Amino acid sequence: MAAQKVLTKNEAGNLHDQEDHMCSEAGQKIDDQEVLIPDADDVAERNDFELDSDCYDIKGQHLFQGLPHKDPRNHVEELEDLVSNTS
Question: Where is this region: Disordered (predicted)?
């Protein structure tokens, strides 16, 4: 049996769970624009997502190694650009 989620209302009237994630009345996580955030486990179980070959290729081409002279924000921007171009 799944544990019941306890929601509390903040001063602005938004519902939050125990981990302080904003939630819908149904207890689903939502972002600040009230768009549903799918649970990663549910998405993985459905296995209904596609990875473009470009996504596979980036692993070998743009690997961030955490070196002192490298900025991880640049790596994140490159990943965001790749994802936005494949949508």
Answer: 1-31
Give the single-character DSSP code of 33.
Answer: T
For residues 14, 40, 35, 30, the Cα torsion angle rounded to the nearest 10 degrees is 0
35 neighbors 25 (Cβ within 8 angstroms): no
Closest C-alpha to 39, from 8, 17, 13: 17
Whether the model pTM is above 0.85: no
User: Per residue in 2-59, pLDDT tens?
Assistant: 567 899 999 999 999 999 989 999 888 998 888 988 887 777 777 766 666 666 665 5
